[in-house]
Amino acid sequence: MKFIKIKKAVLIEPGSDFHLFSYTKMPLLGLPILGAILEKMGIKVKIFCENISPINWEEIKNADLIGLTALTTLAPRAYEIIERVRKINPDCKIIMGGVHVTSRPEEALENGVDFAVRNEGEKTLKKLVNCLRNNSNLKEIKGLSFKKNGQIYHNPGRKDFQELDELPTPDFSLIEGYKKLKFVPIQTSRGCPHNCEFCSVVQMFGRKIRYRSSKKVIKDLNKMNQFFNLNRKHIFFVDDNFSANTKRTKHLLNRLDKTNLDLNWSTQEEVNVYKKEEILDLMKKTGCDRLYIGIESFDESSLKEYEKPQNLEDIEKAISTIHQRDILIHGMFVIGADSDTKSSIIKTVKSTVENNIDTAQFFILIPLPGTRIFQKLKEEDRILANKVKKWDLFDGHHVVFQPKNLSPHELQQLQLKAFKHFYNIKNSFGWLWKKKFKNFISTLYGRWAIRKWKSNNTDYLKSLQKSYK
């Protein structure tokens, strides 16, 4: 490989099609971190997130390095971008990373990518840039896959996970149109102790939770506040289980309480957070207004199948305890388990309303590549997308597998009915009567979004009905 002079890099997050929560225009966190690392290496960086601002293709022409990140559903759009990049700037080097590439590196390399980064990318990217600059041996870079002379090489995986305190503050100012952001992602930990069969978190970040120190988190927030004015934004802590370590979470929130920051924030939690009442009090005190709870189902059989550490009594107690603090609950549900039937799904949907959950999303089970559920359904020849090869449908809003007790069309219709039942007129004006204005607005938006999604997916719905009754 020839010596490469790298002066400019363009990083790209492909855009997604419209879905129910498209209003939350929030970038993935990886590129602002990687951009800050490259800037420290003396490289000029520009980031384009298509859901925020379109790509300026003029910037591509004189870039030495193009980097992309992609969830599975965004992979087709990423490959389209790569094809155009190759025509505009055939000499640049293209790197791609993220969850999808981690499980499908060969696919990325066959679609024009020079280097596929598996798992966490910070250390790998830094070593790769130095390798390209110094013309050293690519085979020494852990976590890297690449193609040379027609042959694909997969270097050993990276076992030395990133120490989060070593990471720089994510530089959102590198994103084109960053001032438009209303939602700002922050990460205080990586990894999850659970191993849900449909989740790719463990595959990407491992089961051991690693933490960024409270000191570093507060430093990040203060630094971003200098150019963002965070009291006019909404902070979303992207941790998969924010309060997993009670002692550490208490320390972080106490430190946050002593700052001059006036934050409005939310995060992801598990149902059993209700047992940590002191944490909930500190959450409310520091500006938490909503918790995204992985409830998954109100059916005991489905919860057992998903290997969730909760039962129906836990769910009801959690809703009550959290609402006592005037913290909103966004219930996240997954329908399509092998134990799911029409009646069990209807029960889950009705229970969301009966238990006064504030907002909800009903994801269709997604067998993401690399997960245990993907392997199971693949072995049983139940993944429909094996036949259509459309990764863009793996977004939780389209049926991409053969359910056990329902047809694909029936499951799709049940999801649409779930949203329509939850975001109905009666429920909407019920929130207005209770003076829950945020919920009222969310319900109006939800009704509009359902209509728009159906309009955008008319051909898909007809095809599903025709093929899989």
Can you tell me the overall shape? globular
The spatial strand order of the largest sheet comes to: 2-1-3-4-5-6-7
The residue fraction in helices comes out at 40-55%
Text of the CATH class of the largest domain: Alpha Beta
Q: Point out poorly predicted stretches.
A: none
Quickly give the CATH architecture of the largest domain.
Alpha-Beta Horseshoe
Mean of residue pLDDT values: 90
Q: What name is given to the CATH topology of the largest domain?
A: pyruvate-formate lyase- activating enzyme
- Which band does the percent of strand residues land in? 15-25%
Number of domains: 2
Q: How many strand segments? A: 15
Helix/strand class: alpha/beta
Main beta sheet? 7 strands, mixed
Quaternary state of the chains: single chain
- Provide the gyration radius in Å: 22 Å
Q: How far apart, in Å, are the first and last alpha carbons?
A: 54 Å
Q: How many helices?
A: 19
CATH superfamily of the largest domain: tm_1862 like domain
Brief account:
The protein has helices at 30-40, 57-61, 75-88, 99-103, 105-110, 122-134, 201-205, 214-228, 246-257, 277-285, 300-305, 312-324, 342-354, 372-379, 385-388, 408-422, 425-433, 437-456, 458-467; strands spanning 8-13, 44-49, 65-69, 93-97, 115-117, 144-148, 151-154, 183-186, 189-190, 210-211, 234-237, 265-269, 288-296, 328-335, 359-364.
